[in-house]
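Exercise 7. Predict the joint structure of the components listed below.
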Amino acid sequence: MPSPRYDAILFDLDGTLTDSYPGVTGSVIAAIEGMGLDQPDVKTLRTFIGPPLSESFKRVYTHLTSEQVEHCIALYRDDFTVNGIYNNRVYTGIPHLLRRLKSTGAALIVATSKPTVYARRVLEYFGLLEMFDAVVGVELDEREHDKADIVRAALPARYRRAAMVGDRHYDMRAAKANHIDAIGVLYGYGDRPELIGSGADAVAEDVSALSRALCGGEVSSEGLFITLEGLDGSGKTTQMPMLAERLERMGFEVVATREPGGLPLTERIRDLLKDTENSSMTAEAEAYLFAASRAQHVRELIAPALARGAVVISDRFVDSSVAYQGGGRELGVGRVQRINEMAVGACVPDLTLLFLMDPAESLLRRGSATRLDRLERAGEAFFTRVYDAFVAIGREEPDRVKFIDASQSVEEVTRDALRLTEAALRAHLDSSPRPRETEDGRGDDRP
Ligand code: TYD
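Solution:
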């Protein structure tokens, strides 16, 4: 492993690790409305991200007394604790970067102008708190503070070389006041002239560039492959966007797809399979068509996305073939698995959420037979065989396949699906990422 460039790295929170724009501005608007002040324009609203709140309120509403500013902050906090704090997302790539930095042994610290309790809560909400050795912010009732003091308090007692990463001039100046490297990021709320003008030693356009500046290489991580399986009508398709949104907000690139389909070619295979005109299609032809669609899907979409570190969620994958064609059409589990070996290659799901619902209930949810496509027209005995095959797959591979009771309310199903997915993500991040060195082994963003 290359020797780490830094043994202590301090991160600003808003605009650097998380994008809190909707949350912060929503709570600023709540405070402004509460005080009966004029609404600022969007550009002015943006300037509230980063600096201490008291400074922003004073700058925008110059006529306010100190007492009124305090009242603004109190109103802001009332709204923020309930709404704003969770209206937030982690910048894409940050979890992988933090894991990589942690593996070098560097101390990772959050140094923020936010109250420490809020900062900890946000980090905990996104599963990032455990990555940090310390979180240093301000007391809830503290009004004036200088970022340089926060950085001073946040720096470990002993370090060889430290850096402060932030998106605004406050962060760069605070770093320089403490004689440590200042690394500016451009994906937050500052711009290049602001960062360079306030002493940035390096400026990173995006999280990849930040990774090069901090570790001298790209963070290369294998992605995570999640599949959703179950009978038609089990509600997995409803869960897909909720899972995708949550994972995106946690800082992962998410690719959501489905089988059969997901691509122009595979969507055409899907049409063939579903068309009621094709009533003479044999079970064998059906199994090969699903496998053909999958072979394309894996190579064109799934494998490349996983190779660049994305989380891929597929609504159905090879287990559907095993259950529907192997069990339902009675081709046999082993034969269908063999047909699919060449189709999937090494692309095996890391986690499969199996939405279990009674076959009779799933038939009811599907609606009247006249509107059903060729695949959905099979009777209850067929779906019972599919169900039994799914359960058998789950029992066979308990580490990969997790059962979810799909007869619960949508909210309960979402809660279970998120809990299982987040556990799989944590385990995945714990398996250490590998650094990919740039040619000269160092970052290329030093001005
Ligand atoms: P779809 O409309 O996507 O249904 P759902 O929303 O329930 O996934 O249709 C997919 C149908 O194809 C569904 O009936 C299951 C079936 N299927 C198989 O029989 N074998 C397979 O390998 C796959 C992927 C799907």
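Discussion. Residues 232, 237, 259-260, 290, 315-316, 320-321, 324-325, 375-376 surround thymidine-5'-diphosphate (CB under 6 Å).
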